[in-house]
Design brief:
- With about 425 residues, the protein is α/β, with parallel strands linked by helices.
- The chain has two domains: about 70 residues, Alpha-Beta Plaits (2-Layer Sandwich); about 325 residues, Aminopeptidase (3-Layer(aba) Sandwich), CATH 3.40.630.
- Helices cover about 45% and strands about 15% of the residues.
- Helix 6 crosses helix 14 and helix 11 packs antiparallel against helix 14.
- It is globular and about 65 Å long.
- The chain starts with a helix and ends with a helix.
- About 45% of the residues are buried.
- It binds zinc ion (ZN).
- Zinc ion (ZN) binds next to loops.
- Belongs to the peptidase M14 family.
Length: about 425
């Protein structure tokens, strides 16, 4: 009977997958202000079921939208009628999801058999948390795990602290995964944690000299509830979840965009007040416990000199501001540091990154963490959008994890060394 139910559940799942099979991601190139207005209107219509993979509209940059299978015909027709050019960027999202899930299952099986940890695989929250414990246990002279509070759904939020001693030394902050579906950022952070530990142990420059003066704090999963949700099913709705999982004023729509909820021009441009929107900013600045936990931790520490946050996708290395096109007071230096860091990144595989302020190279965004950090005196604040430029978007194949992490490390290493050499 039990077996029968399992088979039935499987059939139901297959049937369900068939129903949603066929979503596409369209890349749309606005060519005029009229086109931009039309796209903005589409984005505001949260009932349309369109999932904007990129935000902000300009004739300089394409907009990527996942379109449900049921609306494909209508949306393509609509774009054609309005003479808005588009291409199909991902032909069948479901195919990529199924491939990703099969790959994860295969990798998990190999890990079980070898009792090893595969850095070239995506992992769920529990596995990442176990990895952190193992890493701390084998590098206890360097790493400790700090619990900075709990999430909305009561999961612990952990930060790895890399320190060779001293009280509240100048410190570098790196977080990943504040947007749940950006899995390459979590996977990169996992690899980075191991790399920092190994480089220190093997006395490989520049890690030991950086850690002789500064501490590094690395948060691999900044949005644990959202991340758990993305692992629930291969359904697009779950895997492509971006926000937190808190209740909102609209019972039909959950979650806040945690990177629009910081106390930095909260409620300004590039954030929505609609709880159903992907970039919903929340009811008030730092209303979200996850953001509050991180902000409180950083403020109570009081000696962070650099704040870096990992996102995907687009291959960008950005600095403040996001809320305004005005130059940050340190813009020249930040631009120079980011340019050198992106050069270092490029030296590994030739991956090309664009460099600029958030506002200018991606989108206006108020309530973003990098602006918050910068406004609180953390000068060296940067946001990364990791691979790719759109071929797979948020569904980057696992065989690109290690090369992505390694090239990102080149950039981070450059920035950390620079911060170390330029005390303030
Ligand atoms: Zn993001």
């Amino acid at each position: 009977m039990r077996l029968y139910l399992a088979v039935f559940a499987l059939l139901a799942a297959v049937h369900c997958e068939e129903l949603i099979n066929g979503d596409q991601v369209l890349r749309i190139n606005a060519e005029s202000e009229d086109h931009i207005q039309i796209l903005k209107m589409l984005e505001r219509d949260v009932d349309s079921g369109l999932d904007f993979w990129t935000h902000g509209f300009s004739t300089e940059r394409p907009v990527d939208i996942r379109v449900p299978h049921s609306s494909l015909h209508a949306v393509k027709d609509f774009l054609k009628k309005n003479n808005i050019p588009f291409t199909v960027m991902i032909n069948n999202v479901q195919e990529l999801l199924v491939r990703e899930r099969e790959e994860m299952a295969r990798n998990a099986e190999v890990e079980r058999q070898t009792k090893g940890f595969d850095f070239a695989a995506y992992h769920d929250l529990e596995t990442i948390y176990n990895f952190m414990d193992t890493l701390v246990a084998s590098h206890s002279n360097l790493i400790s795990k700090v619990n900075i509070g709990s999430t909305y759904e009561n999961r612990p939020m952990y930060v790895l602290k890399f320190s060779t001693g001293g009280e509240k030394r100048p410190a570098i902050w790196i977080d990943a995964g504040i947007h749940a579906r950006e899995w390459i950022s979590h996977a990169t952070a996992v690899w980075l944690a191991d790399r920092i530990a190994t480089d220190f142990k093997e006395n490989r420059a520049p890690v030991p000299s950086i850690l002789s003066k500064m501490d590094i704090y690395l948060m691999i999963v900044a949005n644990p509830d959202g991340y758990v949700f993305t692992h629930r099913s291969p359904n697009e709705f779950y895997r492509l979840w971006r926000k937190s999982r808190s209740a909102t004023s609209n019972p039909k729509c959950q979650g806040v965009d945690l990177n629009r909820n910081w106390d930095a021009e909260f409620g300004g441009p590039g954030a929505s007040d609609d709880p159903c929107a992907e970039d919903y900013r929340g009811p008030s600045a730092q209303s979200e416990i996850e953001v509050k936990n991180i902000a409180d931790f950083i403020m109570s520490h009081g000696n962070f000199k650099s704040f870096m946050t990992l996102h995907s996708y687009k291959q960008l290395l950005m600095y403040p501001y996001g809320y305004s096109g005005t130059d940050a007071p340190d813009r020249t230096e930040l631009h120079d540091v980011a340019s050198q860091a992106s050069k270092a990144l490029n030296s590994w595989h030739g991956t090309v990154y664009k460099v600029g302020s958030i506002f200018h190279i991606i989108e206006p965004a108020s309530g973003a963490s990098v602006d918050w950090a910068y406004q609180r005196g953390i000068k060296y604040s940067f946001a990364f959008e990791l691979r790719d430029t759109g071929e797979y978007g948020f569904l980057l194949p696992a065989n690109q994890i290690v090369s992505t992490a390694r090239e990102t490390w080149y950039a981070l290493r450059y920035i950390m060394q620079y911060v170390c050499d330029h005390p303030y």
